[in-house]
Amino acid sequence: MAQIIFYILIGLMIFQAIMLVRDVVTHREDLGPGSWLISGIIGFIADFADTIGIGSFALTTMMLNITKQNKDDRKLPGILNVGHALPVLTEAVIFVTVIKVDAVTLISLIFAAIVGSWFGSKFVTKLSETAVQKWIGWALLITAVLMLLRQTEVLALLGKGNTAMGLTGGKLIIGIIGNFFFGALMTVGVGLYAPCMAMVYMLGMTPLAAFPIMMCSCAGLQPVASINFIREKAYSRKIALAITIGGIPGVIIASQFLMNLDISMVTYLVIVIIFYTGVQYILKSRKTALA
Fold first, then answer.
1. What value does the mean pLDDT take over residues 173-186?
2. Whole-prediction pTM value?
3. Residue 253: exposed, middle, or buried by beta-carbon count in 10 A (0-12, 13-18, 19+)?
4. In angstroms, how far is CA 7 from the centroid of its own chain?
5. Alpha carbon separation from 218 to 123, 158, 192, 274, 281 (Å, rounded)
């Protein structure tokens, strides 16, 4: 199963690369705002952080907001999903292991997340700037809370004593429905890792089983979500490509050298900043609505 998933991930990497490069080349005269260098650094930092467990979406949103790279908040969900797709696929390829999760459970939940991202991305591309700002703001607040729960090991306690490596019957159906919604929510900036982990734990699976499910769900859904964002031109080409270019070496370096780094204090600082950024986006959506 791990080998099959490995080859599927390689196929998705090729598909994503072709899709992104073709769109950038076709519209090379309209790449959008932003700095190649700054956006590339943002990609490096965010995907480095993602690889060591902090996450990338909320961190990228925060850094893009601080550096004023993105001029249109409607394109932010597209930037996140398109820009981080190849780095996340790289993560999944590097860390695919032989953890023996039940094949039906693994494939069902991955497929559910992919389908959810397809519908979610179609919905998000139609939202107004005010709606996107509001959704991103709440997504950041939810992400901050989930990161805090994960950091304080509350989520880990949910899975304490669990031994199941798969789901059957009603639990499998709940898992499929849950991952469908998590995949859809990822297209507006809510990271899938923490809610998926909590769901898997509450359904009785061992914490070990959560990792291939989370990792491969994200790696599978982002290229699919990217189709709609690219088709609808709902992303900034320069920023997304620069994030991709910077993000891949960030993943490789983090995976090779810094997996044992103690990041507790850094993570708490990131949580505070993400919460603050979320509040700022909600306030910004109210100002936009009144303008």
1. 91
2. 0.78
3. middle
4. 21
5. 18, 22, 7, 21, 24
